[in-house]
Write a structure and sequence with these properties.
Helix content is 29%, strand content 21%. It is of the alpha+beta class. A hairpin with a 6-residue loop joins strand 4 and strand 5.
């Protein structure tokens, strides 16, 4: 028999103001606990979604994100926790923003396309600036137009980086080392990317000729669909120590958020 909303809440424990633990008894066969991070507004949406699900069990629709986080915690080979980041919401199988690590030495461990492909794992970068909202407001229209003028975007857009097939092979194999060699990044940029911007096991021969043909003219573009380059303002700082490490010191500071989807290459 389905549990009531109040019964479900017994299995969700608040850790602090912005994080919650999902106990292993929340869903059948959970191997590890779940954990999600959310501010007050997202907390309301997360729990309201669960409440509505409890009222309408069996009527279809997406599972609430907390249920999806718990289901991921039941996947074979998962280690430590099923974690959801502060953009979490319902997805296809995995919740959007849901992360999980699996033990490669466990023969029963799985590789989930839903965990690395179609609706999560988008490439996102936050660029910090030394500007503040008061600096940008008077020129925001000019700034927006300048971004459109200098960033190739949209279906059929082409990058301004001269590339041939050999260049693409090298970029795939070398990652950010290729960008550094060509003068598109600073050496310290590598310190802020996973694996220092280069996967040593990268093998370009595993990428199909069709994918390379499609990707060649798009290198250095923003892409299309829901990809964006957005000027953002720091509205609130939740963890001052973590923010300071990223160079974000004050509310009102201007940052640029860039997303280019999954499987698209970025050069800044």
């Amino acid at each position: 028999m389905p549990r009531t909303y109040q019964e479900e809440l017994k299995f969700i424990e608040r850790i602090d103001d912005y994080s919650f633990r999902i106990k292993k008894e929340f869903q059948p066969n959970m191997l590890v606990e779940g954990e999600f991070f959310a501010n007050s507004r997202l907390q309301y949406l997360m729990f309201d979604e669960l409440k509505n699900h409890c009222r309408n069990v069996g009527q279809g629709g997406f599972l609430p994100a907390v249920k999806q986080i718990a289901n991921v915690a039941a996947l074979p080979g998962i280690v430590r926790r099923s974690i959801a980041l502060p953009d979490v919401h319902s997805g296809y199988g995995f919740a959007i923003g849901n992360m999980a690590a699996f033990d490669m030495d466990n023969p029963e461990a799985i590789l989930s396309p839903g965990g690395v492909g179609f609706d999560i794992n988008c490439g996102v970068r936050l660029l910090r600036t030394n500007l503040f909202e008061k600096d940008v407001q008077p020129v925001k229209e000019q700034l927006t137009q300048t971004l459109f003028n200098h960033i190739p975007v949209g279906v059929g857009s082409k990058g301004m980086i001269p590339m041939n097939a050999r260049d693409l092979e090298e970029a795939l194999e070398m990652g950010m080392d290729w960008s550094l060699r060509e003068g598109y990044i600073w050496a310290e940029d590598k310190e802020h990317c996973e694996e220092y911007g280069r996967m040593l096991q990268a093998d370009p021969t595993k990428v199909s000729a069709r994918a390379k043909k499609r990707g060649l003219p798009q290198l250095g573009t923003l892409g299309a669909g829901n990809h964006y380059a957005e000027i953002q303002v720091v509205d609130e700082i939740y963890n001052k120590q973590a923010a300071k490490r990223m160079g974000i010191d004050e509310e009102g500071q201007v940052c640029v958020m860039i997303t280019v989807g999954a499987g698209v290459w970025v050069i800044r």
